[in-house]
Please model this.
Amino acid sequence: MVIKQFTQDGIDLVAKMAAGVWGKEQGAHGAEVASLFCQHLTRYSLYSADLALQAEDEDGLQAIAFAWLPGDTNDAASWLRSQLPNMTGEEQQTLLTNERYLTRTDAQLQSRMLPNSAKLSFFISQKPGYGTPVLNALIERLRERGIEWLYLWTDCTCNWEYYPKHGFEQIGEGTVPEFSTDDEEYVYKMFRKKIK
Model:
């Protein structure tokens, strides 16, 4: 395993990896929507090249961890606006709903963040044993910058049980009406970890 800096040319690989996990929820809208959803999610989560790491081996990219600091920016909104004219009405609605969800939950999490904090904006592994090392490398990079706390939000489509097992404490949760159904609530959770 090698851990190194993530670069923008890996976005398609990360989106494909994410589609295997999170794209299932959007699959009901078609493969194209699932692909666009994961492209948008990856771009939304990628802020700083310095705080974007990947783990790879001879089989290629296996895990990534991205973080942002308050004030960092990304290109997700401009990318999405450039894609909207090529989408159907249903595709547009799905992606814009997701954008509102991401923006709202980010704002809720930021309102809970203490000074000198970062947010884990994207973390996924497709091979056992690769996620924790890349996350630990990112945490070390944040420590070197003097960051004391790492925050994140996750939802019921993710392996949220991972975080309490790795020193994160839950600080909140809620439901997402636009993704909930009569049969099942779509739940998100907020976590934080003291890293310094």
Remarks:
- Confidence is low (pLDDT under 50) at residues 24-29.
- The first helix runs from residue 11 to 21.
- The longest strand covers residues 60-68.
